[in-house]
Amino acid sequence: SPEDIEVLIHPESVVHSAVELVDGTVIAQLGVPDMGLPIQYALTYPERCPSASERLDLTRLAGLSFLRPELEKTPCLALAMDCARRGGNAPAVMSAANEAAVGAFLKGKLGYNEIYESVAWVLGRIGFIAEPSLEEIIASDGEARTLFKESYS
């Protein structure tokens, strides 16, 4: 459930994910601060393939630090957490609108500070479906992308 997810800021970008088990132990996936290996794994799952990525040298790590995000300074994170709690098609709509907004930002068509506003605007205009089918999730994603493109391009 969304309440079981904790978001932390990790400045060194070495820990890519971590799971706390029922006995309190934590299993973490560590790697060089590069998304090449996680992307490779996503594309080749469940296989583990040799990688051209640099290897993580644990002896060179000075330490690992973690911070709790300040939600008032990270409104998109706060919005994503709210969508996760709400459920339904809200996470799909938020994800699609965010991808479209970041894409527009990277192309110089949207300011950085406009990302949150545009995502929230799209989210507020797509009908909420509490228990969507797969087809409704896909349709909600497409509707969000289309609405963003029509309104912000």
UniProtKB/TrEMBL annotation:
Residues 30-146 form the DXP reductoisomerase C-terminal domain. GO terms for molecular function: 1-deoxy-D-xylulose-5-phosphate reductoisomerase activity; manganese ion binding; NADPH binding. Pfam families: DXPR_C. Gene3D superfamilies: 1.10.1740.10. One of its GO terms (biological process) is isopentenyl diphosphate biosynthetic process, methylerythritol 4-phosphate pathway involved in terpenoid biosynthetic process. This is 1-deoxy-D-xylulose-5-phosphate reductoisomerase. The lineage of its organism: Bacteria, Bacillati, Bacillota, Clostridia, Eubacteriales.
